[in-house]
Every structure is written in C-alpha cells, then in structure tokens.
Specification:
Blueprint: E1 3-7, H1 12-22, E2 29-33, E3 39-43, E4 51-55, H2 62-78, E5 83-88, H3 107-116, E6 121-125, E7 140-143, H4 146-154, E8 161-165, H5 171-181, E9 185-192, E10 198-204, E11 211-219, H6 223-234, E12 241-248, H7 254-259, E13 263-269, E14 283-285, H8 288-302
Parallel strand pairs: 1-4, 4-5, 5-6, 6-7, 8-9, 8-11, 11-12, 12-13, 13-14
Antiparallel strand pairs: 2-3, 9-10
C-alpha cells in the first residue's frame, strides 16, 4: 500500500518538510475560494488503495483550516484512499475542553467529533489537555516534543537556572523539563482578570538570583507570560528570562509583548506557520523529523504482512 501525503494551506512548509523526510513528494491538491467564500478542493492524482496523511494544523483561522482538513479527507476517500490519517500539529479549540458555565459547548469535543467522522486515525502534537485524546473515538498518536525543546535549552542552560510553570496547569510540564535538564522547579499561582490580563498572586519556589526558563504548551496572547516575567523580576530573578513553548499562535502581539520585557530566547516549534516579521524574534524548532518518523512507523505497522494462520 502506497504512502501519500497532502498539505493543507495552514502550514505547507512543514508538510513539505515531512514529505522530504519520508522520501516522497506531496500529492498536489488545488484549493480555490469562490466569491461567496466557499472552498473547492480538487485532487488530480488517483489515490486508489493509498494510505493518505493530511497535514493541517487547525490554528487561526480555525474554522477555515478545519473545513479544509475535512474537505481534503473527503476528496481523498472519493479519489480512492483506503485509509486517511489527519496530521494536526496544533489542535484548535483545545482550551475549550470543559464547560466553564452552564450553556456553553465543549468546543474540543465538537471538533474531535467532526474530525473523527472523516478519519481513521489522528496524529497530533502536545494537546493542551491530554484527556482530549478520549474525545476522538479513534486511534490518536499524541506526540510530545519535550526532548527536542529540552535539547535546545541544554545548549545554553546555566547551573543557576530554574524551570518556571506560569500557572498550575503547567506544573507537570515544568517537572518533565526539569527531569530532562536536572533543574529545580518553581510555579505561579495566578488569577485571570480578562482574556489577556493575568494577576500573579504568589510564586512557589526559589527564583531569586536564578535564571528562569518559563515553559508552557503555548504562547497565545502573552498575558500569562508577561505577568509571570514581571513577578519574577520583582522577586530578584536573574535576567534575561528564557521562554519555551510548543506552540506559538501566529496572530496578535504576544511576541512583541515578550520581547519588550527582559527576555532572551523565545523557543517554540514550527507547528504553526509564523508571519515573516517574527523571523528574527523566535527560535523555531522543526517538528518534521518527529512527525515523519511517527507516520513511517504507523504506515509500516499497519501494512506489515500478517503472520501465517496457526503459526507460533
């Protein structure tokens, strides 16, 4: 069974890099928009019997990128693909994994149901909440790039460094980095005031005279990171501060807000395509080898010859 890959428009550079590591060329897929904003997808090549992987993070604009993913998957099946796997390096709506108030939807579950209806399997990277895996109702390969990011941190980390979780939700992640790097951990108690304003109530752990490394799963508005940096400086940490996250959302002024503070490196992965103006402000690590290795393993395992009946 042939392995095929199609790139959506959300991050074509990452998709092409994945195809390169697999030693294949991405299957051409034409994407047009009609005047009424409807999308048209067309796959010219036959995919009869293929094992198809569609690379499409569902970052902003989430609705359009999700719809592209579903349309490409449907077109792939109608072009003969035997199996379709969604490769979603960033999963939008992951922060809507529960209801905060009555009358709200569980957005992550809604997206998972839509994706599961068109796919056989999902490959994703560092979900905001690992429990989202259970929302899909199909096999999920959940990848964590912690060793990749820790490897970059190890190149510059000092003996006085401390891993800092900017909220309680990131404590386990900070501990995983600490285990990789052999460093202590501190964490922050915060209170969210608005969507992009956060108040730090206290910091647990020794940060005075230490070089902080802030770690989280994503950089969104930058509000949590900025408030944490200000609190760390007040508590006499050493500067500059290092920021490391798996995902950096491409819209908004989060990176500009961070670089206006005493921040040295901002490390993230290329799970989402970044605007050109961010080129010199971030250290983007390549997920293509990790994702390509996972695709190859799944493909080879799924299509390995079955053992002979009655064999030992």
């Amino acid at each position: 069974m042939k392995l095929s890959l199609i790139a959506g428009t959300a991050n074509p550079a990452l998709a092409e890099a994945i195809a390169g590591h697999l030693g294949i060329e991405a299957t051409p897929c034409r994407m047009d928009s009609f005047p009424d904003d409807e999308l048209q997808v067309r796959i010219a090549d036959s995919l009869t019997g293929d094992d198809l992987y569609v690379v499409q993070p569902t970052g902003p604009p989430v609705g359009r990128h999700l719809l592209e993913l579903l349309l490409i998957a449907d077109a792939g099946r109608r072009t003969g693909a035997a199996r379709v796997t969604a490769v979603i390096p960033y999963f939008g709506y992951a922060r809507q994994d529960r209801r905060a108030e009555s009358g709200e939807p569980v957005g992550a579950k809604v997206l998972a149901d839509l994706i599961a209806a068109r796919m056989d399997q999902v490959i994703t990277v560092h979900l905001h909440n690992p429990a989202i895996e259970g929302f899909f109702g199909l096999p999920v390969e959940h990848l964590f790039p912690i060793p990749l990011i820790a490897g970059r941190l190890r190149e510059t980390v000092s003996e006085d460094a401390v891993l800092v979780a900017p909220d309680l939700g990131a404590v386990k992640l900070a501990q995983q980095y600490a285990d990789e790097l052999g460093l202590p951990v501190a964490y922050v108690h915060k209170e969210r005031i608005t969507g992009d304003r956060v108040a730090v109530r206290r910091i647990i752990g020794d940060v005075a005279g230490r070089s902080p490394i802030l770690v989280d799963d994503m950089i969104s508005t930058g509000g949590t990171m900025v408030s944490t940096i200000e609190a760390l400086v007040e508590r006499k940490c050493r500067t500059p501060v290092t920021v490391a996250a798996t995902h950096a959302l491409p819209k908004g002024d989060a990176i500009a807000r961070l670089t206006s503070r005493p921040v040295g490196s901002i490390i993230a992965t290329n799970s989402l395509a970044q605007p050109p103006e961010r080129g010199g402000a971030m250290d983007l690590l390549d997920l293509a080898p990790l994702i390509a290795g996972t695709i190859r393993r799944i493909h080879e395992k799924a299509h390995a010859p079955a053992p002979p009946a009655g064999g030992r």
